[in-house]
Amino acid sequence: MLKKYLGNKNFVIGASLVMFLLLLLIYSFINLPYDPNKMDTSNTFLRPSPSHIMGTDNFGRDIFSRILKGSQSAFLVGIAAVGISMIIGVFLGAVSGYFQGWLDKIISVIMDAEMAFPGVILALIFITVFKNGIFNIAMALAIMTIPRFFRITRSGFMQIKEMDYIAAAKARGASDFRLMFLHILPNITSSLIVTASLGFSTAVLSEAGLSYLGLGIQPPDASWGKMLFEAQSYLLIQPWYAVIPGTMITLMVLGFNLLGDGIRDVTNH
Amino acid sequence: MKYALKKIVTIASTLLVISLLTFGVFQILPGNPVDIILGVDADPLQVKALTQQLGLDLPLGQRYISWITGILKGDMGNSIRYQVPVEQLLKQSLPVTISLTLMSMLITLIVVVPVSIFLAKHNNKKVGVLISFIMQIGIAIPSFWVGILLVMFFSVTLHWLPSGDYSPLSQGFLNYIRSLLLPSLSIAIGSSAVVIRYLKTTILDNMNMDYVRTARSKGVARNKVLYKHVLRNALLPTITILGMLIVNALGGSIIVENVFNLPGTGHLVITGVANRDFPLVQSVVFYLAATVVFINLITDLLYAIIDPRIRLT
After folding, report:
1. A131 vs B contacts (CB less than 8 Å)
2. Residue B292 and residue A129: Cβ atoms within 8 Å?
3. Going by C-beta distance under 8 Å and a sequence separation of 6 or more, which residues neighbour residue B119?
4. What CA–CA distance (Å, rounded) separates A198 from A172?
């Protein structure tokens, strides 16, 4: 099994990128070179140098420390968003696919309607209603990905429900709850992992977008999207500042996309 | 016919749910538009008068019904912030967003077909693998960062194109295209990557089919099979992706319009949210969602017309 994974290019590149970002995250908890929010007006727009390896921004804050701190926000939002949407989506999908009937119809219509909203708008409305804050952003992004978990769980449940071993377990007197979560759910784990990995990158991308618009992580807290927004005003003086956070976002999204694709390739064959 | 009817019933129920969701969500918004217009420490009498004027004192059901009948008649009420009818604001902003969406679609279409064919031909060679990897990056890269990089390169360094602001068609075709080129390019890069990946796989799937082997053994040249037979079959399912692309472009335009300071619908929604302009955001969001639903309906129907096999399932 491990050999299969190591033979898959998508998986290897994706997993290495994710590992690299995880190491950065761990490093950010152990050793931040500077206080990421500390302004130093005598040292603004410094070029990269041994003391500030990525230079400083318009407030004289150390860009490398802010990038590290930003990785914490990205991971936190991503994990929370995927966790919430997985719990809700899997539960709704399980109920829909297992019981079907009118309940399934109602939930499916709501999910279809939700899919029709452009994701950013949905998140935007949610944030307006419940104000910013990491948990609310995660919640808003979670809502965007619920239909994906819902669909994959529902179709999996509908398929597996008809299998003989389920009928056997039922004949033995297993309860619906036991059938759903002990007998059927484990069979769709790999597709859930794939959806989670792809959902994680969607969440990271959308968080960056919202923060760029000023609706995500609030200043002075560091977020890669917000840093891009700040960098945009200083393209003339400090072009590299806009390159760094964008690269980080791309690497993270790329890593989780490739990881998800890789796992899908391996488990499908 | 039965298929179309079934689709239309689904669409109607989806629209109903969307309207209920959009309306419902704005009822729990914490900020009251009256407070926003008059300030927090306004005269209570004034507050009462304005609440009545805006119809905010009516029961919920009545407000929903008057809102939805208004929407259906094309009357969306007045924007609280700008004090003008919402239709007027939409009329100003829609051309921008539509131009942006169409132009990014156009760029996508020009790029997609040749690149996917090239990739399918060179699937296992080094160039193919390299381009596939570049496509993965294209999918991962945030559109607004692409926008910023394009500005950095084409506006700040080379001074070729403007870094923002919209120039309407009435002020000359060339300026219009120039003002939209970078924003549409930033949306198109991501969407091209998605379509190319999809089209490449369908081309490859089709190349393994029996009809290709038959044509080849009859002596038809490889390229002729590819262009005349495979491409036709591979483009069919791509139509469904086109619907998704328009939706993506609409969503992407919300952020990209803000990068390039274009006065489009996305810009309108974001300022509306910031000002708690209920009638404005409610109506625009409903229309955007309805547009998405209709685009999906049209692509489904088109697909069924072009490929009658679909209607059976």
Report:
1. 30
2. no
3. B128, B131, B132, B196, B200
4. 38
B43/B46 Cα distance (integer angstroms): 5
Per the structure, the complete domain to which residue B193 belongs is given by 88-312
To the nearest whole Å, the CA of A228 is away from the closest chain B CA by 7
B178-213: per-residue pLDDT in tens?
888 889 999 998 888 888 888 888 888 877 778 888
> Is residue B67 located within the same domain as residue B204?
no
Burial degree of A74 (CB within 10 A; 0-12, 13-18, 19+)? buried
**Distance between terminal CA atoms of chain B?**
14
pLDDT in tens, A69-91: 899 999 999 999 999 999 999 99
Residue A137 pLDDT > 70: yes
pLDDT in tens, B58-90: 777 888 888 888 888 777 777 777 778 888 888
A235, A247, A256, best to mutate vs chain B, most B CBs in 10 Å? A235
Backbone Cα Rg of chain B: 24
**Interface touch B251/A129, C-beta < 8 Å:** no
Regarding pTM above 0.90, the answer is no
Residues B143 and B198 grouped into a single domain? yes
Burial tier of B35 (Cβ tally within 10 Å: 0-12, 13-18, 19+)? middle
CATH of the domain at B147: 1.10.3720.10
Residue at B37: amino acid letter: I
Cα of A173 to nearest chain B Cα, Å: 36
Do B54 and B114 lie in one domain? The reply is no
Task: Please give the residue of chain A at the shortest CA–CA distance from B14.
Answer: A113
Whether residue B171 is contained in a domain is answered as yes
Chain A residues touching residue B296 (CB < 8 angstroms):
116
Please tell me the total count of domains within chain B: 2
Let me know whether B201 and B308 are in one domain.
yes
Query: Where does a domain end: B47, B72, B97?
Result: B72
Same domain, B129 and B268: yes
Residues B26 and B162 placed together within one structural domain of the fold? no
B170 and B22 in a common domain: no
For residue B256, tell me if it sits in a domain.
Answer: yes
Complex ipTM value: 0.85
Are residue B175 and residue B292 in the same domain, yes or no?
yes
**Chain A residues with CB-CB distance to B under 8 A?**
109-110, 112-114, 116-121, 124-126, 128-129, 131, 201, 205, 208-209, 212-213, 215, 225, 228, 231-232, 235-236, 239, 242-243, 246, 249-251, 253-254, 257-258
